[in-house]
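Lab meeting minutes (informal)
Scribe: AK
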Amino acid sequence: MSVIVIGGNPGTGKTMIAAELSKKLELPVVQLGTIAEENGCIREHDDQRSSNVIDEDCLVEAIHNLFYENDEDFIIEGHYVDLVPSRKVKEIIILRTHPDVLRERLLERGYDKAKVNENVEAEVMGVCQMDAIFSFGEDAVYEIDTTSISVDECVNTIIEILGSNKKPEHIDWMDLLEEQGILEDYISL
């Protein structure tokens, strides 16, 4: 059994891309948020941040149980990819989106300004990328820029990654924004 992990910040396309990849590869998708809910791993709801606070130990145990109970390949999708045990992971894909586009997507979802800013800042700083690299190693984490590609293009890129020994490329929004002289517009000090 092996697992393909799709992660990234809210608004980068995780759910849509995982669903389409699931159809093409004929593999089920398991959402980390659903695992957390179904296993009582949500400690509380943070009203100020409009998000759930996860009991990470509980979620890790639930993921271990999921691995133990399954012998078929599947896709895991979610925000907490660094909590997925590495021994069963085939590939880790982190979806990235240019901060301007991400901001628009999150505003369209109705996120409040503070939550939009928090998620855009996390994208600029590469929080999901860094968490995944810390957990799985730099050579195991692939990043795909979903800013201007379709779901099908992204899925095809993932399929290409799965069948190759391609070296991962990493996206650095901080360098790009700093070169443009606008990094401070995205990072709260």
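Next up, CB showed the second protein from the same session:
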Amino acid sequence: MNKIYTYISSFLIMATLSFGCTEATKTETPEAGYNPEAKLEELGITLPLPPQPVANYVNGVRVGNLIFLAGKGPKYADGTEMSGKLGADITIEQGYEGARQTAINQLSVLKTMLGDLNKVKRIVKVLGLVNCDPSFIDQPKVVNGFSDLMVEVFGEKGKHARAAIGVASLPRGQSVEIELVVEVYE
């Protein structure tokens, strides 16, 4: 009986190692027709230089095939930022636009880190923070500005898990701050 268990255990270990080696040597590439760079051009979006961190942190950290991007807000090419509170002095439509601009800023960080957005395999997770009045309950409608652009640019690969949270304030009074996790091709 012990010989059978030993044989089965040895077989499972060898099968696992073989599978692991096969997977480790497999090179993944985007499928034909996948081209986020062309999609940006089609949408008329020119990526700005990425906003630089304002403290002791970096724009993004890559760990294996995941990139964790630091929170960014709606900073425009002219240096201005959308600031204010949703439900007080910023409308849902303005907040949506601010979240969309934040997506453009995060795409510029990704482009800088990767050199080519075609290396993005999937947008995995988004955390949207909305500076809002305590009675404001439409944070998801605001963060949709970010999510919608991710899907426009990356198609199905842009669909992600997400949280949209209301907060009492954000740095410099910005109306939105969004961070994300991205999976990239090896």
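CB comment: The chain has one domain: 36-184.
No objections, moving on.
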